[in-house]
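Long-time lurker. I teach an intro course on protein structure, and each term I like to show students one example going from raw sequence to a predicted 3D structure in token notation. This year I'd like something fresh instead of my usual example. Would anyone be willing to generate the tokens for the chain below so I can use it in lecture? Attribution to the forum is fine with me.
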Amino acid sequence: MNPLLNLGYCCINTELQAQKIFCSRTMRLATFRIKGLAYAQELALQNLRDLLTILQWNQEHGITAFRVSSDLFPLADHPECGYSLDFAQDLLAEVGAYARQHQHRLTMHPGQFHVLTAKTDKIIKATVAGLEYHCDILDRMGMDKQSIMVIHGGGVYGDKPAALARLEENLLRLKENVRNRLVLENCEMAYNIEDLLPISRKLKIPIVIDYHHDSIHPSSKPPEFYHEEVFQVWDSRGIKPKVHVSQSVPDVNMNSINSRRKHSDYIDVLPDALLKLNRFVDVMFEAKKKELSVLRYREMTAAPATIVKKASKKKLSETTAPEEAVPEAKQVAKKRKTRAV
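-- Reply from a regular --
Happy to contribute to a lecture. Here you go:
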């Protein structure tokens, strides 16, 4: 295992989720209309409390890269019921302070409905509102420029050059604080690394290389061919590069893109090009078993945990058992049981 690679995971900690600790409580619009803003805000506050618990668990297990759920604040970016995050400022600041103190990198990945290549003003307006919402969370946490927001290029709409022109135009229309956090990811359906490089170079917007996406929708050359150029943009911005890895489910139908897109529970092998990198990179594991996939891979390869004061040295079988939950996280969870929504 390349010791320069720092492994992270996305949104949910499965061990803590089994204890009802998670940060993606949300609600439908119909529920909001019945229960109102106060209920949405209480869900959000519980999400933030649990996010802090997850970060404490990560710290105890030497994991310092984590993707924060977009659902922290239910419907906060909805055009009908959007609301200010002022009510949660103290908790947001507390989460951010903990992350900064322990040098955790928090990132976000606005969902597939954020499309800057769209042809209609309505979709662009909703996309911009969603991106501003994500940026507001990270700004209020006090996170620096390492806390990026990852988006895909979006649709092609039958004319890729025209769509890419709209992407560039709409990127330039974003508020500076939003654009400064934004990075592009090659996808498995529309835009590969090669497609995104011209905009990346011109606007100095980094590219997150997704190696699995590239295997499904490849550029004309393998990912390692683009490493130097892609990483130059990251370096010019003073931001640590980040990449995504995943693998298809075991019973994958190689003739079906939809089958190949489905993520497996664990990740068994990292791309050779990534293992040979001679630089620090954060590697986001996109696997269904979340933190367990990171722990399992570290154990399989003797990969090092990020150095922390109390990094766990337990084996996977020990770290995943409920009775071996992190003491700090367990104490916090017990205190919060009576406040759970």
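Some talking points for your students: The chain is about 45% helix and 10% strand. The mean pLDDT is 88.
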